[in-house]
Amino acid sequence: MGLVPLAFLQRIKRSDTMYNSKITGLGFYVPDHVVTNDDLSKLMDTSDEWIQERTGIRERRHVVGDSDTTTAMGVKAARIAIERAGIDKDEVDFIVFATLSPDYYFPGPGVLVQRDLGLRTVGALDVRNQCSGFVYGLSVADQYVKTGMYKNVLVIGSELHSRGLDRTTRGRGVSVIFGDGAGAAIVSREENPDKGILSTHLHSEGEHAEELSVIAPGMGKRWVTDILRDNDPDDISYYPYMNGQFVFKNAVVRFSEVILEGLKTNNLQPSDIDMLIPHQANLRISQFIQKKFGLSDDQVYNNIMQYGNTTAASIPIALTEAWEKGKIKKGDLVVLAAFGSGFTWGSAIIRW
Fold this sequence. Notes:
The chain is an alpha/beta fold. It has twelve helices and 13 strands. Helix 4 packs across helix 5 and helix 9 runs parallel beside helix 10 (283-293). The longest helix is centred in the C-terminal third of the chain and has 22 residues, at 244-265. The radius of gyration is 21 Å and the shape is globular.
């Protein structure tokens, strides 16, 4: 029998070394421009009462002109997260960027972040899982860190919705919901197996893909050239569509399932939750889940009232705010959960 190559033995040794991962830095950014429900009532047939009753939203932030882009907001949030993590930007080993509203059709914003932050030529991955995007991105980062491939991963969720909304009475069912903003996290190596990201859980059900979607521009349906050629004022294929009641019914079921899945995996109960950060889709969904799990107001953090639904950015924005306000402390059990277009949904169970 021949000698075993040293490189092979080293690979085996590396693969046997498993770490845990933890969030070491958080940051978020939202535009300064506040758009209230009363502001929207001047553009469409709606009212503050109508919007709050159905969504819980009072106001949201919108980018003005070209003052920000999806990437620019993500970079601003990332700078804060990197500083709070206590690392140099050159210690970032990988980028995961979640968004449904990239600056360009391609390339994705991950490489633009690498450029704009002046990072080393690290890898950049773009995640297209909409409202579940940050949880999906966090799961990717978690696995990279746990296997020892990377030590510090930058995860960003950023959205610029306001330029793509139908802000007329025709589109009010969707356009009143969404806002702009970005959140970021640094996911780093943790030696303590009982601390950090304990597990993540991801699911999808493409059968309902068109129930919450933007069909065009897309290669399979209508591309930009088709839209320009037809110049049809009644063409709404490039505006967001949502079957609101159907999405709501599926969301409350999947939220519950994926939270319970994460708790069961870690031998935990709903009563063990110190802080639940749900995706900020609709305050009524969050309140339904809170009631179902018997959680107090101090155990759930919502900020959709101020920011609207910022899709992939909503969880990192809410998580950062909750941490900044001292609502998340060392040793707390933090649960993140999301549901959205795809349908996709997921959860992350974290020991802070």
